[in-house]
Amino acid sequence: EVKLKSSRVILVEDLNSRIPVMIGKKLHQGIMIGSADKRNVIFEFLPKNYEIQNQDKIYTSEIEGILPKGIYIGKIKIDNFGTYGFSVEFEYNKFNLDYLSIIIPNK
């Protein structure tokens, strides 16, 4: 949400976040949903036979044209944390951001 004098940003781990992603070596597509505990995320719409592996890389997907394909988000860390037994090590440190890129979709 961008206004004349302010903007609203939702981080990828935010509870209200729904990010189309590609995950793993075969780049399976799904949706990554943020969580209240900020490290635990939920993946929906991945293939039923897909098993999340330690160090699986996560990239943005171009599903629905929301984001450009291939922006690196982070990687899976199998750590028995939370409900699903894994967390995501995000590529960024939200407490140390100097710059932010804003992606404006073509309409």
Radius of gyration: 14 Å
- Give the low-confidence spans: none
Strand content: 25-35%
Secondary-structure content class: mainly beta
Name the helicity range: under 10%
Adjacency order of strands in the biggest sheet: 3-2-1-4-5-6
Beta-strand segment tally: 6
Please supply descriptive tags for the structure shown above.
107 residues; mainly beta; 6-stranded antiparallel beta sheet; 6 strands; 0% helix; 29% strand
Give the structure's gist in a few sentences.
The chain is mainly β. The protein contains no helices and 6 strands.
Can you lay out the helices and strands and say which pair or pack?
Blueprint: E1 18-23, E2 28-33, E3 42-44, E4 57-60, E5 72-78, E6 86-90
Antiparallel strand pairs: 1-2, 1-4, 2-3, 4-5, 5-6
Describe the structure.
By secondary structure, this protein is mainly β. Helices cover 0% and strands 29% of the residues. The protein is built from no helices and 6 strands. It has strands at 18-23, 28-33, 42-44, 57-60, 72-78, 86-90. It has a 6-stranded antiparallel beta sheet with strand order 3-2-1-4-5-6, with no helix packed on it. Strand 1 and strand 2 form a beta hairpin. The radius of gyration is 14 Å and the shape is globular. The model has no long low-confidence stretch (mean pLDDT 82).
